Amino acid sequence: MAMKPKKADAAVEDGDEGEAAAGGSKKKIMLIAGAAALVIAGGGGWYFVMKPRAEARNAELSQAPTPVTFLDLPEMTVNLSVGQDRAQYLRVRVALEVADAKTADQIKPVMPRVIDAFQLYLREVRPSDIEGSAGIFRLRDELTRRVNTAVHPARVNAVLFREIIVQ
């Protein structure tokens, strides 16, 4: 008789394992389905967030560059502020970048004012002020500010150096 309870216990245990196995497979299926739903939701969210950025980037790349007009100034040679040492000279050739030909036509009548602003500023520059690329960038920014003051209400986008020589 001791054997029968063991068989009954074994049958009950086998039934429990079958039910546990069925429950375990349901849990695995639910876990896999949940993970798949998260991946799909995450991918969809990423797509809707990144798609507008990609479209904006493509729109920027597809736009044609805006045409600009360049206005050349005459070559200028000025003596630099060096104190009592021997004289040093700066020779520059400059072009002004403007938005369009209409703006260039507005600037041409006041060109003597622009050249005067350049000459006055360049005469106060020391050779150490224009050493290296940082000095040239500061010079360009200051000349752009001064030319915009001289040609107001017209606007110059940039002052471009064609030639810079310090002698």
From TrEMBL:
Keywords: Cell inner membrane, Cell membrane, Cell projection, Chemotaxis, Cilium, Flagellar rotation, Flagellum, Membrane, Transmembrane, Transmembrane helix. It is found in: Cell inner membrane; Cell membrane. The chain crosses the membrane at residues 29-49. Residues 1-21 are annotated as: Disordered. One of its GO terms (biological process) is chemotaxis. It is a single-pass membrane protein. InterPro entries: FliL. GO terms for cellular component: bacterial-type flagellum basal body; plasma membrane. Its main location: membrane. The keyword Oxidoreductase does not apply. Residues 1-10 have a biased composition (Basic and acidic residues). Controls the rotational direction of flagella during chemotaxis. Belongs to the FliL family. NCBIfam families: PRK12785.1. This is Flagellar protein FliL. It comes from Phreatobacter stygius. The gene is fliL.
